[in-house]
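Issue 218. Parser rejects a valid record. Input:
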Amino acid sequence: MNSYPRRDSTDVVRESLSLPDARVLDVGCGDGALVRMMTREGAQVTGLEISDSQLARARAESPVGGESYRVGRAEALPIEDGASDIVVFFNSLHHVPIESQEEAIVEAARVLETGGRLFVMEPVAEGPLFELMRPVDDETEVRAAAYAALRRAANGPAFEEIREYGFATDYCYASFEAFKDGVLQVDGSRRAGLELHEAQLREDFERTADRTDGGYSFTHPKRLNLLERL
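Output the parser choked on:
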């Protein structure tokens, strides 16, 4: 694995974006943790997921401000033209079907005002956590496709590239069961693969994790691409 500086993902968000009073769209917001963090920083944040069931965890949390949630897809954002200062894909662009990833970036350009920022943080297809998950869900192709779509956008007419930055963060789990739960929260369709490979996954989890006071830790490389709307 390449050598990356260790960083907290949310610290990278804070240092890369001017959040106070910004209108932010978080595409693929999951449990809403990032929505709540950016709201605390003073942003006006809307979290987007593909279904009400996917938004259930986010909506179950106590609001921290004026954050809101909507159902929609990255390739057809339910947002008006120029209505956002910032569009965020936080570990989510590679979950968009490959044939729709470029359209998702086009949609981000549409809803951003001139000078707005597209913030895309994606996992890199390497490292112990990636290798652990490969038998269940090998994301080599989808992650490469998402990065290629970003590179085309950075060289296209709608955006100018501000920054590309590689770093690594630590994912910590109290147990193998906590790891499984986290995997299923991201994508419930992985259940069959987890059950099929569970014995080997459990063995590899114990073997490859770094043991800490809190349980099990895995170094996870990521890449930030920050683009400005022209």
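Fixed in the parser; the record now loads. The chain has a mean pLDDT of 96.
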